[in-house]
Amino acid sequence: MSKLKVRNLTLGSGQPKVCVSLVASNFEELFAEAMRISQMDCDLIEWRADYFMYVNDISFMRKAAYFIRYAIEDKPLIFTFRTLDEGGGQYIEPDYYFELNRYMVHTGLVDIIDLELSKLADSDTDVVRFAKQNNVKVLLSAHDFITTPTEAEMTEAIYDMRYLGADICKMAVTPNDMEDVLTILQSSNKIQSERENIPFVLIGMGEIGRLTRMTGELFGSVLTFASSGKYQSAPGQMSIHQLRKGLDVIGNRNEGVKFGKEKNS
To answer: Is 143 labeled as catalytic in the residue annotation?
Structure first.
């Protein structure tokens, strides 16, 4: 599993790191939610700016980012504006999408920006290079809220993200049965076996996909997402308590146990 350092956190070491999304529409709610989430047992915080009512005002966005950074202290912060096409909260102009992400890099207040693969593939923006020049990591993402693509399609999408400069490659899809869940896990296993240098996240959304949120330690995903307790930023998210329990059970590989007996220490 590839390792990636973000502030004092190492993605790809041990269990997948747990991220909670910060969703708020105004400044009062934003600061209160940031303070509340900062006290949770999460490793990273994702600001879902597509729900913030002042997203079209750059000066307000810097102020909001400062409030969040103050509240969460040294926890890594992912900046995400999720577009309507991929399940987001509101529309912004395509050119402004890249301007906004570039500006958030410029503030020095965020650690990772989430860019959608579909937007990047259709643009000649330099935002990925700009982020890297300013020591901000780039997470490229893609979402399918209807189906689960084939193993080959998911694997290829992750490889494409890496080729385009992603530090973290994320794909969230929708399994409709357990066969789809197995396809997700097979794709994850293929990626971690063939391309150990790629920090990636491969998640199945919805109730059927819950298992895939807990298997990263075995199948290679470096990051997983939990509910804040007030909002789910994607279907199927569990509470942090539920997710942590699942991670402990599924990822626990006791090498000291053999045939029902513990080895002598």
So the answer is: yes
Q: Which residue among 5, 106, 143, 230 is the active-site one? A: 143
Task: Say if residue 195 carries a ligand binding annotation.
Answer: no
Nearest-angstrom CA–CA distance, 262 and 265:
9
Start-to-end CA distance of the chain, whole Å, equals 27
All domains of the chain, ordered by start, with CATH?
15-242 (3.20.20.70)
Examine the residue annotation and report whether 5 is marked as an active-site residue of this protein: no
User: Which is the catalytic residue, given 170, 230, 241, 263?
Assistant: 170
pLDDT tens-digit readout, 11-26: 998 899 999 999 999 9
CB contact set of 65 (below 8 Å; sequence gap of 6+): 47, 77, 79, 104, 107, 109, 110
CB atoms under 10 Å from CB of 93, counted, come to: 10
Q: Are residues 157 and 171 in contact, defined by beta-carbon separation less than 8 angstroms?
A: yes
pLDDT 10s digits, 57-94: 999 999 999 999 999 999 999 999 999 999 999 999 99
Please indicate if the annotation marks 69 as binding a ligand. Answer: no
Q: Residue 233, annotated ligand binder?
A: yes
